[in-house]
Each structure stands twice: as structure tokens, then as C-alpha cells.
Write a structure and sequence with these properties.
The protein has 4 domains: about 10-85, no CATH class; about 90-145 and about 195-235, no CATH class; about 145-185, no CATH class; about 235-300. It is built from 8 helices and 10 strands. It has helices at about 40-45, 65-75, 95-110, 160-165, 175-185, 200-205, 245-260, 260-265; strands at about 10, 60, 80-85, 115, 125-130, 145, 155, 235-245, 270-280, 285-290. It has a 3-stranded parallel sheet, covered by helices on one side. Strands 8-10-9 form a 3-stranded antiparallel sheet, covered by helices on one side. It has a two-stranded parallel sheet with strand order 4-5. The longest helix has 18 residues, at about 95-110. The radius of gyration is 27 Å and the shape is elongated.
């Protein structure tokens, strides 16, 4: 059986500013001979030169570097297809991530009971608007990408009229090809409708909330807030009650709110910590309250636990 040849895709549009001053805007690092006589771009092309294994490579670059990309490929006798990126330079990973974060926070502000932009799971309620999918190296290159699910779901462009009633399970490797054949590529005209992230970047500045925590495998930045889980930070906590049954513990919480209505009015959903505590044979429930959003003048003192059932570690 003859296997199809691999189509190499080379990304060569960066400005290489992290290698300054060797790498400059006019001559970025990928086109420089940093090791040996060939540039790193040419070295990559040479690795995919075997015609038995590889088809003609596709090179993604910007208009500023089109002649470098074409000329250095010609020097190796490689007929590369050079594709120019349609987006401006201000749409890099950091800009995209900041814009997505601003959008997530705005959605949460408009629909606080339905959506959340909180990074920590213990602070979330409703639907998490996952802005970190736009973090560096996470942005997908194709609108149609197969997900590692049992039914092989496929991320798929939608028309606005489809959004309200669509079901993710309807878009799979078995159904999307027929949809594509029926509707065509809904993303086909994207280059003719280029937008701008300027509005979201302005919104980010107006919000004044700064950056959000990044996933742990990214290098920490100076402006980033602590990556410590909120429950592990030092907060003004009150323990409300302990009970074998969750319903009993929650009833005690409602009694506490009735005794302290002013403080309760300042609580956010994530401020109520319902902990399932593990015993030897069963679990029991502990209720705590984080008073971080309650003005100090309104913060009640620690009271006798209600309920205060005797809970043993072997229970």
C-alpha cells in the first residue's frame, strides 16, 4: 500500500524579538544562519526535502518576510508555497488571550448567575468562559478539529441562528463531512470580514482587573495574580456547622444568614464553602464562609457551630 505524502507546514512569521539584538524586525532569527551556513528556516526546509516522504511545503509568513521565505527556499531548490498571514501583528497570542479574558469578564458581568470567568474551579458557578483556550500555543489553527472523545466530536463553525439550539454531540467525525458538503465551508469568507480586537483591548483596560492566573506549566509573569487556590490563601473564614447529612449542615447555614442578613447580602456564591469531609466509613459535611467580600464593620464573630454534631474521624 502506498502511503500519502506528508504536507509540511512551516510557521515563519514571527519577529524573533526575544533574540534581540541579533534578531531584528527587518531580519528575524528564523532567516539568520545562527548555526552553520543555513538559516534555521532553511534547516527546517531541508528536513522535509525528501520527495518520497513529503509533498511541497507550505510556509506561513507575513508580507514583510515574503521575499526572505521565497528566496531562501529557492536557494535550496525547494518549490515552497508561501502563504501570507492576513491578520495584523497586534493579534499575537498575548493580545488574543487578553481580549478573550476581557470578553469572559464582560459575559460574567452581564450574566452573573449563568457564567463565570473565575480560573479556580472552587470559585466557579454556571458556565466557565474558558479564555485560557487562547493562551500561547493553545490557539487552534483549524476551525474543524477532531476532539479526543468516544464519539469523535468535531469543533465546527456555526451560523448565528444555529447557536441557541445546537448540541455538541451532533457534530462528529461521522456527521460533519455531510454537513460540510451540504452547507459548504462557513468559514470561507473570513478573510473578507476581518475584525479588530481594539474594542476588547480597550475593554480590558477599562475593567482594570489585570491579568488572570495562567495554567501551571506557563512561566509566571510579574503582573500575574497568585496561583495559590483561594481556599489555601489566608482569608477571614468562619466555620458555621458540622453535620453527618449535608441537608442538616445547609439548614444551619440558612439560620446563620437569617441572624446576619447584612453580612449575608455581601456573600458571593464562591464565598460559601461546602466541604465533604472523609471519615473512615462515610463522609460528613462542614460549612464555612469566606468573609472577604463583607465589609469589616459587618463581619460577625465566630459563633458556636450550628449544627455541631459529634463527628469522629472513624465515622
Amino acid at each position: 500500500m502506498t502511503l500519502p505524502r506528508i504536507i509540511p507546514l512551516l510557521l515563519a512569521g514571527g519577529t524573533g524579538t526575544r533574540l534581540w539584538p541579533v534578531s531584528r524586525d527587518a531580519m528575524p532569527k528564523q532567516f539568520l544562519p545562527l548555526v552553520g551556513d543555513r538559516s534555521t528556516y532553511q534547516a527546517a526546509l531541508a528536513r522535509v526535502k525528501d520527495p518520497d516522504l513529503f509533498a511541497s511545503p507550505i510556509v506561513m509568513t507575513s508580507d514583510d518576510f515574503r521575499f526572505f521565505a521565497r528566496g531562501q527556499a529557492d536557494e535550496l531548490g525547494i518549490d515552497a508555497t508561501v502563504v501570507l498571514e492576513p491578520m495584523r501583528r497586534d493579534s499575537g497570542p498575548a493580545i488574543a488571550a487578553g481580549s478573550a479574558l476581557a470578553l469572559a469578564r464582560e459575559v460574567e458581568r452581564r450574566a452573573p448567575n449563568l457564567a463565570t470567568s473565575k480560573w479556580w474551579k472552587e470559585e466557579r458557578h454556571g458556565v466557565f468562559v474558558d479564555y485560557n483556550q487562547n493562551a500561547k500555543d493553545r490557539t487552534v489553527a483549524s476551525a474543524y478539529s477532531v476532539r479526543p472523545t468516544p464519539d469523535a466530536r468535531v469543533s465546527t463553525p456555526l451560523a448565528w441562528k444555529e447557536v441557541a439550539d445546537c448540541e455538541p454531540a451532533d457534530f462528529t467525525l461521522a456527521t460533519v463531512p455531510a454537513r460540510f458538503k451540504r452547507l459548504g465551508d462557513l468559514e470561507a469568507g473570513i478573510d473578507q470580514h476581518a475584525g479588530s480586537l481594539a474594542g476588547l483591548l480597550e475593554l480590558f483596560e477599562r475593567q482594570g482587573l489585570g491579568d488572570a492566573p495562567w495554567p501551571p506549566h506557563y512561566r509566571k509573569s510579574r503582573s500575574e495574580p497568585p496561583r495559590v487556590r483561594p481556599s489555601k490563601r489566608k482569608h477571614p473564614l468562619l466555620e458555621i456547622g458540622r453535620a453527618r447529612r449535608k441537608e442538616s449542615a445547609l439548614a444551619g447555614l440558612e439560620r446563620w444568614k437569617a441572624r446576619h442578613p447584612q453580612a449575608a447580602a455581601h456573600l458571593e456564591p464562591a464565598d460559601v464553602l461546602v466541604d465533604a469531609m472523609r471519615g473512615r466509613y462515610s463522609t460528613w459535611t462542614r460549612i464555612r464562609i469566606n468573609l472577604q467580600h463583607v465589609p469589616e464593620a459587618l463581619r460577625p464573630n465566630q459563633e458556636t457551630l450550628d449544627p455541631n454534631e459529634k463527628i469522629l474521624s472513624s465515622s
